[in-house]
Write a structure and sequence with these properties.
- There is one protein chain.
- This protein has 1229 residues and is of the alpha+beta class.
- The protein is built from 29 helices and 47 strands.
- The strands form 12 sheets. An 8-stranded mixed beta sheet has the order 24-28-22-35-32-33-34-43, with helices on both faces. A 6-stranded mixed beta sheet has the order 5-21-47-46-45-39, sandwiched between helices. It has a 5-stranded antiparallel beta sheet with strand order 10-11-16-12-13.
- A hairpin with a 5-residue loop joins β32 (647-652) and β33 (658-662).
- α10 runs antiparallel to α11, α16 crosses α17 (703-717) and α27 crosses α28 (1167-1183).
- The radius of gyration is 31 Å and the shape is globular.
- The two termini are 49 Å apart.
- Residues 1-62 and 66-77 have low confidence and may be disordered.
- Its cofactor is Mo-molybdopterin; [2Fe-2S] cluster; FAD.
- GO terms for molecular function: 2 iron, 2 sulfur cluster binding; FAD binding; iron ion binding; oxidoreductase activity.
- Its main location: membrane.
- It is found in: Membrane.
- This is FAD-binding PCMH-type domain-containing protein.
Length: 1229
Amino acid sequence: MQICMFLSASYHTFGCSSIVMRQKWLKMDVFGISAGLLGMYLNGIYTAFFCFQINDTNGCGMGENCCKVKKSSSLSDDATPGYTGGERKRKLQLSSLSDCAPYDATQEIIFPPELKHKNFDSLSFAYDHHHTKWYQPVDYDDLLTLKRELPHARLISGNSELAIELKFRFIDLPVLINPKQVKELYVKRVEENGVYMGTGMSLTDMDRYVVKLMNELTVEQVKVLQNIHEMLHWFAGTHVRNVASVSGNIATASPISDLNPIWMAANAQVVLDSADRGERRCCIDENFFLGYRKTCIRSDEVIKAVVVPLTTKNEHFAAYKQAQRREDDIAIVTGAFFVKINPDTFIVEKIRIAFGGMAPTTKLTLTTMSKLEGQFWSQGFLDQALSLLSEEMKLPAGVPGGMSQYRLSLALSFFFKFFLKVSKDLNFMEVQNVEQNLTIGNTIPKSLNATQVYQEVNDKQKYDDPVGRPLKHVSGDKHTTGEAVYCDDINVADCLHIAFVTSPIAHGTLNSIDYTAALHLNGVIGYIDAYDVYTGAQIGHHNDTPVFVKDEITFHGQPIAAIVATDHEIARKAASLVKLDTAAKKPIVTIKQALEADSFIFKHFVIHSSLNDNETVVKNDWSKYERVVEGSIDMGGQEHFYLETQQCIVIPHEDDELEIIISNQCVNDVHIEVAKCLGIAQHKISTTVKRIGGGFGGKESTGAILAVPASLAARKFNKPMKLKLERFDDMAITGTRHPFTLQYKLAVDENGKFIDLDYTAISNSGHTMDLSMGVMQRAMVHADNVYKFGNADITGKMCKTHLASNTAFRGFGGPQGMFGTEIMVKHVAEQFNWDHDEIREKNFYQEGDCTPFGMHLNQCNVTRTWKECKTNSDYCKRLEEVKKFNSENKFRKRGIYLTPTRFGIGFGLKQLNQAGALVLVYTDGSVLVSHGGMEMGQGLHTKILQIAARCLEIPIEKVHIRDTATDKVPNSSATAASVGSDLNGLAVQDACRQILERLEPFKKENPEGGWLEWVNSAYVNRVSLSASGFGIIHHEPVDFFNGKGAELFGYSVYGTAACEVEVDCLTGDHHLLRTDIVMDVGESLNPAIDIGQIEGAFIQGYGLFTMEEIKIRPDGIRLTRGPGTYKIPSADDVPKNFNVSLLGNSSNKMGIFSSKAIGEPPLFLGSCAFFAIREAVRAYRVQNGKKEYFVFNSPSTPERIRMACEDFVTQHVPALPEEGSYTPWTASV
């Protein structure tokens, strides 16, 4: 049976964009779930059908815990006080695909026949394009002749390497040769001792041939081939493997190649050929790779084929890879191992060990190999090998690429895995741990077991009332087909293009700029820089961010000038030609450095819970407490990684008018900043957003960085301007989630109740204020999470550093504040040997409790979500199963964990908690709604359409939203803080109320009439059919300067997640096995949208806490500037057992139609996977005699996991030198 859902799947931010996972066709099923994907977040979502295979007989992925089975389940037992929704059924599926046409392969898009008509693929030709000449030979001799005559010509196959060099290094490529049509390069055959594979074959073709041979040859012969097949599965993505050739991988000599260690350990050969010297075979050994990106291949030679040896009876082979992310990621370390053992004496006759990622080239461990040959295969052999390898492969502490200890531990762990594998194959049971299974994820099903539980609308609700129904995203079809229009799709006549000239250093002075070379480039129109900026004008809410650098450089990637050209690529290339004379100074990069330098962006903030009941702060004597834990934890930042990078178009008009089209979350901020910096009145500027391809907070306050320079250029040259950032520049310029250090001191009584808390949150704000104040305040008011403290003193410090200004990100400081608290709970439990779940339950907030910041919690559902999640996930039973699994497995460990969350809804500034709307009714009965919120894929427009349709009592098809614009709704707040639906929904409701009041006389006059008749009667009687609506939500400001609290938010959203993981303790890899979430969304406006938000937020939070790592050099140079270096969750990382339940019988008297906000609240639940990983690591540490509490910073990358799993392998890894005695590759910001 299948459970299917039809929803706007989303990876949403607070008022930000959504993402769906790629669709995978498995048999005839569409396999998918809303989440991160493709090596990048598909941040401009499309609505899709999702079909989840369910194996349970009752059709529910929750099996025996299904509410159909457990009739008295807590799913419907409890209700939130004030719930008025009546009896509503609980649904387990969002929709059915039963009426969909079956998949028909004949309807797939075909290759255009007109391109095949003239047989260009079989013809030789040469083609000139600008400064590049392209040759396509079909005759092999012609290929060799071309390479002789043009020895420095680059051969291009899949373009997977050259495209990057062209894009970002602007390399000169005068000659290219495409050898893909040369038939001799596709020869494949089995030779006497090996497999000959031509290098014209794509990696996909090679893999298919390898699989064919694996089925035809004996198992003993194909051990190398089997590992090639397994490695190719993780080699890039399918689209790359379909075009890329193994020859490019060999010729580029990447030291982190997945395959080169296999060739080297297997003693494979390459067949090289030249016109003058003929064919030769060259072993891929220690003499093949001459240095970084250098080989012994001569300039006139072509790689004709690779020859892979077949293995014999007593030979063993294996290869291993570890990356930051399993799927579609380059390796950190790859190891390949070959050994030939005499089966009678167990003497090693031959051994070859090769590593990638351990040197500037793929490296054979010659010393270790020579000393191991002739040795007896035994436990002593393993010990000797680990000692030899640790000496031969040790890396200096500041090695390029960093992770010196981890990389060495991987090399050793890979050999240990190989040793156990061979021992098991030999049935050599004398060695220790030979019976252990070292592969994780074995129990993960291929199909996806998932449920989405929600409440149907009340049976009495009108059929055409769309509120509460799981409607698809209004733009879903357009997202799917590619018809949705984004900023870059808009073409304006006579439009020029802009590219930034950015700083190559993080801190220093700018001495001069030389534009000469750039201005000589064809297509360059001119430039703008600091001297074009209105005197003294700076951008930002605090007027502290220069548009362009004039004298002082304050972060790497800071805009210094901008080139104006006829197209985007010319502008980029010209910008790279601008010569900058700078003088570097030592930057402040990390929180630690900022604290030492007393470098802060603003004064410190405080909250004192004692001021809720007293006039003065109560200072407690900590010496009287018997049980105190004290510590600190670091939490890294997070790149927004929206699919659509930041961009804008500015069109100048008469009378100094400017039309701005931008991808941004706050049209009003852009509006204000451009007016301020150009000295133009706001009424002469129109700022418009159609839709945004992802935001996540990264486009809330940063729009002026683009809009102001583009507007300056538009006025200077009197031409439309388009400015779009490449991912490379976007990640350097626009900031990230704030990294935090969280310090705590907590006193508990003998029963585990929290008595007193001293909590300090310290953020890395970057070089200017941006939104750091709001982020810190949000962190502080979430430092309690869901727990009641007898007394709490909370401090916030914002560090000023030489980094791009860190900015808003989904959760806006809340996840950071809650993370420190959850770590603190673990610290208490481990230090005093208490059960962490019981500690939580003893300290949960109850109805009416007051937070440290003065808010009383009404309709507090934390306990309800906790209990329901605990039941739904079968947590207690699975906890015992995890303990049993860990007792039986020495190097694989599992962890299971429950994590609760509370998130306050509303902006931190009172004036932002307002919204406007304009509702226009036309005489054909159609309705146009404009509001101040931005559609970012999160489904805001869909919900607003539902609200308007209900309010006007008309079908939703009659309502339309075109865009968001400042000339329709002025002074709108950012689409952020999760209040997009709350605020704009209330404003639309208000406007609709006015319309209905005006129509009321006509309805009374003609009660049998309908909407159209009433509208036309109003028009005939000259009654206005347009209305401007307004909405506000509750807010009382907290005094963060003195620490006095207030009823800051109108309500909170609650949720709980349960996660189970499996960890490979030898490598740091992990699998997320199952996730269960219960979320309190009140009475959902749209369950499909809300469930998509929850799933997407969880995956984004999972990325934040487990794999997304921002890497910056100690000199402030940002290393993570694209998908090659920054890793987000892929489809493979989504749990195959994923169950989301909306809390039943919940209501919210403070929300539009009793709903609750949902954009940000679920994100912190992603930390549940982090804590489950930590439980698995702790099980390994306890097994190895380390029972004490340990610091485990976020994110839990493979490096952090492995290095926390201290064991006999890590004992061979040298300790790092004393801090300050070397320069680390990256700094912990």
